[in-house]
């Protein structure tokens, strides 16, 4: 008997016998299950180390379900009677497991295999006295490893997702797992995962590292101290999944209930795209912590804290229902604090088109912003109640944003209030615009600047304009494509204004088309007039022109029924019209019509370069004075124009703007200028001209020039320094005054003459000389000829003594 037992012991410890026995068992199971099970080699050591090599198990459809190069396990002390099996370690090398649900099947190939394995009465053949089947089978294992493994899942009853991880079609490779402290009590698997890494081929999703403590059963998956590095994210958390069975993972978003405590973690939102493809565009990295409860499709999170970008920080609660379909996901966000900036918002990618929100420069000037409040709705269709503090003032808004599904146009309506809003800073107009308080109802659409249309209706309670505070300004208008169309009404101690029309800044050259009624505008208080505190203006404006400066003005400005009050006197004009129009590609005409003056300017002209052009021209005759200020003539635009000025009600005009002057009505000025031909010609005349009490009768002026010289001719029939009166009959003056100045070679040659031949006592004067410029700061004045006759008496002077140097 001993010899027989020894022989059997030796035989069963022979590798060939062990392999043969295993192959017989595999063939038996293959026949029983009508499939194919193969084991290439079996080795069992004296210490119950079992090594299987070349294991291949086909499912009942004859497709490979399990394939392993090597499976090693060590059995410790176990008892079938007590229904416990203790394993020291299981190691699977190059192991592949293929799980499949075939077309029209409701369960997997593994379930089908196990059902077939246990469907016969084979268990009844085991003596009940040997095995107590009423006690649960207990399995424990101290360690478990998979090296270079793979796993696939195919559900032929479902369609594939084109992108992202598909829980019905999975292809996991490069699978490495290191597990210890593993035990199975009833249906609960307890283990410590020291290592897990894998790659899902179908989507490109991969896990670099994974560790934590787990409990897994048919109804629960619990993880503690879980640390994961996946794609561009690093997570640190505890979570608990609850479900009715493993089949619930086929509907993970709806059926897996989650409780999670996420400690400070780095998350790239695009990584979630592998489970919710709409989020792939969101290459937005967050560092956050949060507590979450619910399913992926319906969860609540508390104490969410995250940081993003340069400034963005958030603390609050977020509830979401509808994932992974982000466009239908209903969210509720309670914001305890949100700090952000326009730069961070513009860098934040969102699903949809456009991917990035293009904020205008005005939003950037808000600087650092802090918000509290709430948001409720989907990402592009929500209600918001927010209070914001920014570097440019404080804001409060209740708004609703909706998106039309057919044309994808976003619309927003609500109310906006501001306190101490620095409008000058935001609109880059700090030199005249200050802070403002407002209360505006708005109705708008569009997120991209070029698409924005915004209707506004409300009141500006306080506005600082050039140092003055204006209250109760009513605004009713439309803002679109850098245009404002609507009505503005101001009733203030310093001005009453009603504006109705269009301001268009959409093109490089702005355009204006509006009417405005101005009443009792106190120009000094408004800082529009710096010299007379009594100046008050009332007028009506009708404006339709484009232009950013006088050189590109096209259109007309009509000013009607203007009353100007100054120093207790009223000045009234019926109409002023300024009209500018193009008459050819390079030429235009500007015309002024009014009660006071008519004027026109026609030809090629640019006001911006006119002074420089004239300086260039005068440098031909006075290079010492003008050489430093001239430009190369080739770089200057051409100036070729003609102008006319006809003064009508000149008395009021000079009294207001030139109080030292008096000019008679119907005084005229005519001129020509051609920079290419170096030609300047001006003619002017006035029946009566007064300057600081000096009277000129029949005054005239002319200029002319050629290549060598520039001439200026001034004259007057009478120049009266003092008029006779009843109290003083002595009059002082000059008759037939004639002055000719010739400018050439850095000199001004002058001729001064007067006479009164028709008087009983002859008076004649003649003076000739020159003013020579040696440098801009040094000149000589020379008188070289004189002839004076006073009351028929000649006066003689030594011209050689009339030399004056100016330094």
Largest sheet: 42 strands, mixed
Work out the number of β strands. Answer: 42
Write down the oligomeric state. single chain
Q: Write down the Rg.
A: 49 Å
Q: What share of residues are in beta strands?
A: over 45%
So how many helices? Answer: 11
Instruction: Return residue spans where pLDDT drops below 50 for at least 5 consecutive residues.
Output: 1-11, 120-133
Basic shape = elongated
- What is the residue-mean pLDDT, rounded to a whole number? 84
The termini sit apart by 144 Å
Structural class of the secondary elements? mainly beta
Brief synopsis:
With 807 residues, the protein is mostly beta strands.
Keywords:
807 residues, mainly beta, 11 helices
Record the SSE blueprint.
Blueprint lengths: L1 H11 L2 H19 L3 E8 L4 E10 L5 E12 L8 E18 L7 H10 L19 E18 L13 E17 L2 E13 L4 E12 L3 E11 L2 E10 L9 H4 L1 E12 H4 L12 E11 L2 E11 L3 E10 L8 E11 L1 H6 L13 H4 L4 E10 L2 E10 L2 E11 L6 E13 H4 L6 E13 L7 E13 L2 E13 L2 E9 L4 E9 L6 E12 L13 E11 L7 E13 L2 E14 L5 E7 L2 E8 L2 H12 L4 H4 L13 E8 L2 H8 L3 E3 L4 E7 L4 E13 L2 E12 L4 E13 L9 E13 L2 E9 L8 E12 L2 E13 L2 E3 L7 E4 L1
Parallel strand pairs: 4-5
Antiparallel strand pairs: 1-2, 2-3, 3-4, 5-6, 6-7, 7-8, 8-9, 9-10, 10-11, 11-12, 12-13, 13-14, 14-15, 15-16, 16-17, 17-18, 18-19, 19-20, 20-21, 21-22, 22-23, 23-24, 24-25, 25-26, 26-27, 27-28, 28-29, 29-30, 30-31, 31-33, 32-34, 33-34, 34-35, 35-36, 36-37, 37-38, 38-39, 39-40, 40-41, 40-42
């Amino acid at each position: 008997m001993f010899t027989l037992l020894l022989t059997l012991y030796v035989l069963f410890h022979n590798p060939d016998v062990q392999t043969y026995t295993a192959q017989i068992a595999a063939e038996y199971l293959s026949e029983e299950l009508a499939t194919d099970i193969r084991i290439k080699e079996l080795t069992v050591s004296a210490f119950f180390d079992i090594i299987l090599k070349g294991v291949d198990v086909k499912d009942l459809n004859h497709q490979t379900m399990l394939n392993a190069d090597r499976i090693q396990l060590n059995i410790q002390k176990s008892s079938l009677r007590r229904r416990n099996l203790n394993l020291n370690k299981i190691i699977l090398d190059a192991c592949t497991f293929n799980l499949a649900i075939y077309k029209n099947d409701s369960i997997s190939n593994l379930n089908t295999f196990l059902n077939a394995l246990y469907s016969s009465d084979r268990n009844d053949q085991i003596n009940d006295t040997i095995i107590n089947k009423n006690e649960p089978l207990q399995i424990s294992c101290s360690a478990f490893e998979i090296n270079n493994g793979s796993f696939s899942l195919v559900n032929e009853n479902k369609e594939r997702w084109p992108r992202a991880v598909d829980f019905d079609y999975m292809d996991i490779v490069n699978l490495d797992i290191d597990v210890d402290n593993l035990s199975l009590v009833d249906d609960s698997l307890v283990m410590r995962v020291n290592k897990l890494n894998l790659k899902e081929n179908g989507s490109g999703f991969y896990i670099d590292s994974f560790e934590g403590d787990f409990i897994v059963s048919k109804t629960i998956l619990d993880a503690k101290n879980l640390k994961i590095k996946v794609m561009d994210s690093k997570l640190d958390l505890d979570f608990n999944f609850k479900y009715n069975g493993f089949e619930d993972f086929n509907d993970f978003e709806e059926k897996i209930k989650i409780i999670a405590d996420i400690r400070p973690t780095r998350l790239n939102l695009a990584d979630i795209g592998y489970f919710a493809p709409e989020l792939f565009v969101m290459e937005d990295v967050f560092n956050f912590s949060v507590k979450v409860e619910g399913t992926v499709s319906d969860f609540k999170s508390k104490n969410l804290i995250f940081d993003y970008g340069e400034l963005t920080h958030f603390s609050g609660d977020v509830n979401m229902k509808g994932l992974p379909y982000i466009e239908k996901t209903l969210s509720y966000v309670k914001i305890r604090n949100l700090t952000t900036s326009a730069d961070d918002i513009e860098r934040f990618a969102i699903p949809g088109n456009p991917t990035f929100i293009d904020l205008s420069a005005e939003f950037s000037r808000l600087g650092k912003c802090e918000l509290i409040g709430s948001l409720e709705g989907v990402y592009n269709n929500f209600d918001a109640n927010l209070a914001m503090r920014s570097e440019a003032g404080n804001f409060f808004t209740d708004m609703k944003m909706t998106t039309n599904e057919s044309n994808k146009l976003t619309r927003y309506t609500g109310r906006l209030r501001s306190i101490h809003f620095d409008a000058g800073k935001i609109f880059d107009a700090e030199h005249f615009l200050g802070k403002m308080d407002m209360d505006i109802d708005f109705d708008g659409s569009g997120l991209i600047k070029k698409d924005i249309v915004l209707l506004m209706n409300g009141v500006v309670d306080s506005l600082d304009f050039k140092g003055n505070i204006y209250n109760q300004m009513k605004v009713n208008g439309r803002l679109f494509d850098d245009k404002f169309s609507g009505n503005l009404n101001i009733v203030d101690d310093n001005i009453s204004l009603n504006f109705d029309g269009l301001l268009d800044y959409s093109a490089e050259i702005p355009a204006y088309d509006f009417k405005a009624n101005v009443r009792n505008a106190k120009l000094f208080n408004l800082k529009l007039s710096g010299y007379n505190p009594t100046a008050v203006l009332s007028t009506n404006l009708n404006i339709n022109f484009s232009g950013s400066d006088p050189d590109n003005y096209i259109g007309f400005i009509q000013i009607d029924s203007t009353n100007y009050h100054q120093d207790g006197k009223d000045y009234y004009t019926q109409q002023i019209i300024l009209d500018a129009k193009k008459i050819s590609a390079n030429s235009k005409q500007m015309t002024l019509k009014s009660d006071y003056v008519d004027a026109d300017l026609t030809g090629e002209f640019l006001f911006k370069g006119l002074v420089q052009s004239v300086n260039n021209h005068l440098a031909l005759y006075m290079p010492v004075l003008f050489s430093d200020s001239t430009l190369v003539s080739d770089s200057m635009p051409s100036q070729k124009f003609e102008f006319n000025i006809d003064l009508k009600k000149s008395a009021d005009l000079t009294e207001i703007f030139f109080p030292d002057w008096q000019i008679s009505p119907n005084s005229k000025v005519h001129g020509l200028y051609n920079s290419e031909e170096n030609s300047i010609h001006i003619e002017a005349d006035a029946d009566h001209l007064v300057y600081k009490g000096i009277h000129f009768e029949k005054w005239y002026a002319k200029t002319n020039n050629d290549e060598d010289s520039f001439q200026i001719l001034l004259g007057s029939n009478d120049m009266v320094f003092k008029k006779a009166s009843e109290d003083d009959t002595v009059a002082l003056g000059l008759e037939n005054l004639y002055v000719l100045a010739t400018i050439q070679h850095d000199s001004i040659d002058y001729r001064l003459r007067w006479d009164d031949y028709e008087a009983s006592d002859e008076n004649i004067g003649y003076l000739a000389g020159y003013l020579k410029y040696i440098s801009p700061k040094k000149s000589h004045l020379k008188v070289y000829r004189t002839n004076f006759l006073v009351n028929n008496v000649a006066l003689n002077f030594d011209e050689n003594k009339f030399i004056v140097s100016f330094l």
